[in-house]
Amino acid sequence: MIEAQGLTKRYGDRTAVDGISFSVHPGRVTGFLGPNGAGKSTTMRMLLGLDRPTAGTVTVNGRSYADFPAPLRQVGALLEARALHPGRSARDHLRWMAASNGLAVRRVDEVLDMVGLTDVAGQRVGRFSLGMGQRLGIAVALLGDPPVVVLDEPVNGLDPEGIRWVRTLTRRLAAEGRTVFLSSHLMSEMALTADHLVVIGRGRILADCSMADFIAQHAASYVRVASPQRGEVADLLRSQGLDVAVHGDELRVQGLDAAAVGELVGRSGLLLHELTLVRSSLEDAFMTLTATSVEYSARQQTPAGAPR
Ligand SMILES: Nc1ncnc2c1ncn2[C@@H]1O[C@H](COP(=O)(O)OP(=O)(O)OP(=O)(O)O)[C@@H](O)[C@H]1O
């Protein structure tokens, strides 16, 4: 389990992470979301002992990363493209990582197989594509068979097959009882992968809840209604106290489920051509929740003198 308590990082007068507390539990995939500059990478770097908190703590199974005698056995991590020796082969890179961390060299072929790099294991990593480099980074993360796996943007540079592979892999790691903590900009992918979400904006926690609760709380679903008698249907639904918005040829109705809307209209004898429950996506929910954080960071990044 990963636990952050009052975790804070300041760079000069800029607060990148502002006193956040959260827990990442084993047996499920926890997604870590936030707009650009929200503090995700800084949090992950502190978790992995690459940056020192200004205040607060972050621990893995009760200990700081720096206190683990063999960290790769405890926490496997993929951060943004790591420095690889371009002349070394993928297999040699993994062997070197295994040897320098006291891990069994036979594990190298197992992880090469797990990430689908067996056929190219002898090639120099300098000639690897971005996606192959990501797979190698994931192989390093899994080398020590760790109970906790932290992946920052693991699907970057992967093709659709690779993206699906990361989804299956992370879900399997969680099903094996591991703690899986994952960031991604691909919302549709995160919606399919994560069970739980921690969302940050401007260095603070905006949400820490299940995926289902997040979507239910932060984006509204509605019933799409199409009818040749649109005006009468709208009047009827409004007379029942429902919220009805007109969008082109369709009505968007909130306050009742599709079956109940259909029964109401059906009893009145009016005609219906379409009745569909439209569920909001994770992306809608994320945009709603983080709108202010995004505006803030957009303003922050406007160059001096540029029109606003
Ligand atoms: N070494 C540093 N020195 C100064 N400021 C930094 C440093 N690292 C990060 N920051 C600032 O801290 C804030 C959080 O950055 P961080 O990279 O953690 O965000 P992020 O959520 O990972 O964003 P992205 O999705 O763009 O990677 C940003 O405002 C960033 O400019």
TrEMBL record:
GO terms for molecular function: ATP binding; ATP hydrolysis activity. InterPro entries: AAA+_ATPase, ABC_transporter-like_ATP-bd, P-loop_NTPase. PROSITE patterns: ABC_TRANSPORTER_2. Belongs to the ABC transporter superfamily. CDD domains: ABC_BcrA_bacitracin_resist. Residues 2-227 form the ABC transporter domain. It comes from Blastococcus saxobsidens. Keywords: ATP-binding, Nucleotide-binding, Transport. Coiled coil: none annotated. PANTHER family: ABC TRANSPORTER, ATP-BINDING PROTEIN. This is ABC-2 type transport system ATP-binding protein.
